[in-house]
Write a structure and sequence with these properties.
Elements: H1 10-31, H2 38-67, H3 74-98, H4 105-120
Length: about 140
Amino acid sequence: MKKTRYKRTSVELFGILGICIWGATLFLRLTKTGYQEPFLRAFNGLAPNLGATWLVTMLIRLITVKLCGRSYTIKKHAIASICLIAGATLSELVFDRFFGRPFDMVDVITAVTAQPVIFFVPLLRPALPASQFNAI
């Protein structure tokens, strides 16, 4: 098994952003502030899906690189993305079927669009030399 040197990437940056998004969502829900303004209501609906998708992607990468000692390739990210989208769809189906909450296609669309954002908007990439920063 080949050990790879660990490098921080846009996946980790978006994972940390996902944690912050989840924290902001929890804060708004606990203080009941998020239900007064239309923007905050939309944020409360979309943010958990966006944050969770980025957070789980980061966790998958960390497990792959740190625990398994393997490289995280685009192919592995594509498989993880498909699994995350399937999980988001399955989650909506479970909530629709067993908890009486209607199927929310916007949640699935949020999960679908969250994955490509990691590659199309890599944070800090222009500021760092290519040797210090990878897109994946």
